[in-house]
Every structure is written in C-alpha cells, then in structure tokens.
Design a protein that fits this description.
Layout lengths: L4 E5 L6 H13 L18 E7 L2 E10 L4 E9 L8 H15 L4 E7 L3 H6 L3 E9 L2 E9 L1
Parallel strand pairs: 4-5
Antiparallel strand pairs: 1-2, 2-3, 3-4, 5-7, 6-7
The protein binds coenzyme A.
Coenzyme A (COA) binds next to helix 1, strand 4, helix 2, strand 5 and helix 3.
Pfam families: Acetyltransf_1
GO molecular function: acyltransferase activity, transferring groups other than amino-acyl groups
Keywords: Acyltransferase, Transferase
Length: 145
C-alpha cells in the first residue's frame, strides 16, 4: 500500500464518483440501502479525504465542521479487500492532522458497535447510551485533538 496516496477532494473532483462508489459498496449496500441513500445533506460543506491508487478510491473518511472548534467524522470506509492493513488508521490520523492545522479541537462520531475498538485504538472514547442508526446498534464517540 506504499503507492496509496491520500488527498482531500471536493464533490465534483474526478475521484468523487469513486468515493461515492466505495461508500455505497462498503457502508450502504450491505445494509440493503440503494445508491440514492449514499449522499448526506451536508456533503458539500464537508472535508472528504480519500485514499487512492491508479485512479481507484480504496478508502475514505469525511468530516463535517459543526462550529469553529469541532465537528463530526463520518463515512469512514476501507475497501473490503484492504481492511485490517492499517489504511483506516492512516486516514483518521491524516484527517486529524489537517483538522489541527485548521484549528479544530474536537471530533465526534457515530460508531457502529463492532467498530468501537477501532476508534478506541485511535484515542476515541464512548459517551452516552447505545442507540440505533441505519438499522444497526451505534455508540457516540469523541476525542480532543
Ligand atoms: C472500520 C474500518 C474503517 C477500519 O479500517 P481498517 O483499515 O480495516 O483498520 P486498520 O487496519 O487501520 O486498523 C487499525 C487498528 O484497529 C483495529 N481494528 C480495525 N477494525 C477493528 C474492529 N472491527 N474491531 C476491533 N479492532 C479493529 C486493527 O486491528 C488495528 O489494530 P492495531 O493498531 O492493534 O494493529 C474498515 O474495517 C471498514 O471500512 N469497515 C467497514 C465499514 C465500517 O464499519 N465503517 C465504520 C463505520 S462507523
């Protein structure tokens, strides 16, 4: 994966369709949602970090700024054949570095329950009660940058 590049893109960038495809395949299709369900209302106001090689998007993570100090990390996905090889952690670290550079101090996220340990390894802590989203159990998590 040494030849995998990480770049921030915007909707309309040549890699954006690849990002949407990855998000659909990894995060929405397995839950029975359609491709139309992939976009968020705050898509255009969010940071989109993609991992890509040879024009193929292999991973992504998004961040929606909610105020001057923080916001929500969302749509964290790594292509199924590459999971467990460090790309997800690399994406989160690179996003956090950019957020610090921009002056953000807090990140929160909606973690799918089985993925809570992934975020805990990256310094995120669970808060609040368990809840359901997109039909599956979730936990709120946060960290200070
Ligand atoms: C969750 C996901 C983004 C993690 O990315 P990844 O590239 O597979 O994870 P990494 O290889 O970078 O893992 C980093 C660390 O977290 C651990 N980890 C990753 N997923 C884990 C899981 N589900 N449970 C426990 N530990 C996990 C890894 O073992 C690794 O530990 P280490 O630092 O001790 O080696 C990826 O597996 C994925 O896309 N899953 C499906 C979509 C999804 O659930 N997204 C999150 C929505 S909230």
């Amino acid at each position: 994966m040494a030849d995998t590049s990480l770049d921030f893109i915007h909707p309309g960038h040549p890699l954006y369709d690849g990002e949407l495809d990855l998000r659909f395949r990894v995060l929405r299709e397995p839950l029975g949602f359609t491709r139309a369900d992939v976009k968020f209302p705050f898509e255009d106001d969010s940071l989109h970090l993609v991992a890509h090689a040879d024009g193929t998007v292999l991973g992504c993570v998004l961040f929606h700024p909610e105020d001057a100090h923080g916001g929500r990390l969302f749509q964290m996905a790594v292509s199924s054949s590459l999971q467990g090889q460090g790309l997800g952690a690399r994406l989160v670290r690179a996003l956090e570095e950019e957020l610090r550079r921009r002056g953000f101090r807090h990140v929160h996220l909606h973690a799918r329950a089985p993925v809570v340990p992934f975020y805990e390894r990256l310094g995120y802590a669970v808060y609040g009660e368990p809840y359901e989203e997109v039909g599956i159990p979730h936990r709120h998590m946060q960290r200070d940058l």
